[in-house]
Design goal:
With about 425 residues, the chain is of the alpha/beta class. The protein folds into 2 domains: about 200 residues, Enolpyruvate transferase domain (UDP-n-acetylglucosamine1-carboxyvinyl-transferase, Chain); about 210 residues, UDP-n-acetylglucosamine1-carboxyvinyl-transferase, Chain (Alpha-beta prism). Helices cover about 30% and strands about 25% of the residues. The chain contains 14 helices and 24 strands. A 4-stranded mixed sheet has the order 22-23-1-24. Strands 2-15-17-16 form a 4-stranded mixed sheet, covered by helices on one side. The chain has a 4-stranded mixed sheet with strand order 4-5-3-14, covered by helices on one side. A hairpin with a 4-residue loop joins strand 4 and strand 5. It is globular, with a radius of gyration of 21 Å. About 0% of the residues have low confidence.
Length: about 425
């Protein structure tokens, strides 16, 4: 099992180019099931979850050419695809369930394993399944698989999600493209990654209207056509490196970003006195003389993202005063706290709320990563910890961060991968 070893206390300086968004790439790849035309997707992040999704598409019959050097994937569905998505490919990646919608919509049947991924909460898929039932599908769950059928195809209808869910919005949106009639989706997720999926589906030839902040109407199909699409940047990766610079008395130029998309994250970090200069497609980040405490709660976009909660917690350990985080999205996303405590952080957790006492001195330790964002949180802690930090079980990290040790080492961090 691979590990990361970090020697903390070094100043960060340099340029970091942000990769394409994993969370945008995965639903776009799943949606290619809908078309038999050639699709080229650019700015692909070279991370394990994307590689797993590419393998899943190959397994069900897609022709997939993955050029990692050029960071692009070409896909053609020459023949009818298999409608079976096995457990061995979905056990590590929750987004694998996104093939359910397009397979069911296009072929009228799908057998898809219940998904895996990070252990950060139950994240039930009942919103997905209830929507498909309303669209006319018969669904049962047996032996760890979702078995769905719609012999007459899916039909358009009004679907109001009981709670904002990115995954459910994406899965039902993709399926709606092949449904009969108009599908009206309400209380949808409005994340930029959902917007990128909509832009891609429109390029394919589907008629989609965003009729409000959280309302999407899927009107049908003009004509499917070959498509080239560039995936948006990864705003969570960008936020992670902003925090890295703020922690380490560093100065970093972060390129390949759109600051407007990160308005909430940037505004919050500025309130903590992080110095961020915004340009058209890059950011300059400087370490503040003093980090200010703050109280935040995670919310769906445009609120503060749950995927940056663990990272900003590390920054709070260096703030003056007491900060708090209320985790409103997932019920089990403070698993990194116990490892930060082992490094010397003073953090109290009561239910959904964490209280972080600033001014903690962090010391290196041997640590265990529990999920993707907890993994990178420990990397950030290692950057400022005295002595050596070793992070085990970094396969979580590789699911969502491209070449993190190379990007950091190029900026002066003493970090290496151990086998």
């Amino acid at each position: 099992m691979q590990k990361l070893e970090i020697r903390g206390g070094r100043k960060i300086s340099g340029t970091i180019a942000i990769s394409g968004s994993k969370n945008a790439t995965l639903p776009i790849l799943a949606s290619t099931i809908l078309t038999n035309k050639k699709v080229t997707i650019k700015n692909i992040p070279i991370v394990r979850d994307v590689e797993t999704m590419a393998t899943l598409l190959k397994t069900i019959g897609s022709s997939v050419k993955f050029n990692k050097r050029k960071k692009k994937i070409e896909i053609i569905n020459n023949n009818a695809l298999k409608t079976f998505a096995p457990y061995n490919l979905l056990k590590t990646m929750r987004a694998g369930v996104l093939v359910l919608g397009p397979l069911l919509a296009k072929y009228g049947a799908a057998k898809v394993s219940l998904p895996g991924g990070c252990s950060i909460g139950s994240r039930p898929i009942n919103f997905h399944l209830n929507a498909f039932k309303k669209m006319g599908a018969n669904i049962k769950v047996k032996n760890g698989y979702i078995i769905a059928s719609a012999k007459k195809g899916l039909k358009g209808c009004l679907i109001r999600f009981p709670k904002i869910s990115v995954g459910a919005t994406e899965n039902v949106l993709i399926a709606s493209c092949f449904s009969r009639g108009i599908t009206k989706l309400r209380n949808c997720a409005s994340e930029p990654e959902v917007g990128d999926l909509i832009n891609f589906l429109k390029k394919l030839g589907f008629k989609i209207d965003q009729v409000g902040k959280r309302s999407i109407d899927v009107l049908g199909l003009d004509k499917l056509k070959p498509t080239v699409h560039k995936v948006i940047f990864d705003r969570i990766e960008a936020g992670t490196y902003i925090i890295a610079a703020a922690l380490t008395n560093g100065r970093i130029k972060i390129t390949n970003v759109d600051p407007k998309i990160m308005f909430t994250e940037i505004s919050l970090l500025k309130k903590m006195k992080v110095k961020i200069i915004e340009k058209k497609n890059h950011l300059i980040v400087k370490c503040p003389k003093k980090i200010k405490s703050i109280n935040i709660g995670t919310k769906p976009y445009p609120g503060f993202p749950t995927d940056l909660q663990a990272q900003v917690m590390v920054l709070m350990t260096k703030a003056s005063g007491i900060s708090t985080i209320k985790e409103n999205i997932f019920e089990n996303r403070f698993m990194h706290v116990s490892e930060l405590r082992r490094m010397g952080a003073h953090i109290e957790v009561l239910g959904k709320k964490a209280k972080i006492y600033g001014g903690s001195k962090l010391y290196g330790a041997e640590l265990m990563a529990t999920d993707l964002r907890a993994s990178v949180c420990l990397v950030l802690a290692g950057l400022v910890a005295k002595e050596k930090t070793v992070i085990n079980r970094i396969y979580h990290l590789d699911r969502g961060y491209e070449r993190i040790e190379k990007k950091l080492s190029n900026c002066g961090v003493k970090i290496k991968r151990l086998k």
